[in-house]
Amino acid sequence: MKTQFLAAVIASAVGIAISQPFDTAKTRIMQQKTYRTDIRVYEGFFDMCRLTISNEGRRALWKGAGPAWCRNGPWNVAFYLSLEQFRTFDQWAHQRDHSYF
Prior knowledge:
Structural class: mainly alpha
């Protein structure tokens, strides 16, 4: 049970570390003022990354990672622990040495 818990926490942290820069880019691009098309802060994903890194540093791409992990971390833990319990029950209920899910 401790192994599955630790694996779920690590999986959540790795998922957030990989996806957070894309989420930050999406949020910043979507929050641009669009009522005047002649004034745009970002022209696209790579332009947003370039400007953000030059103005705020590399860590700015991971702004909001803490709240994202607080949202996804408990869900991943509950999901993976439940999955392992269902697998154990499936093996016991059907007298198999392997599970179908």
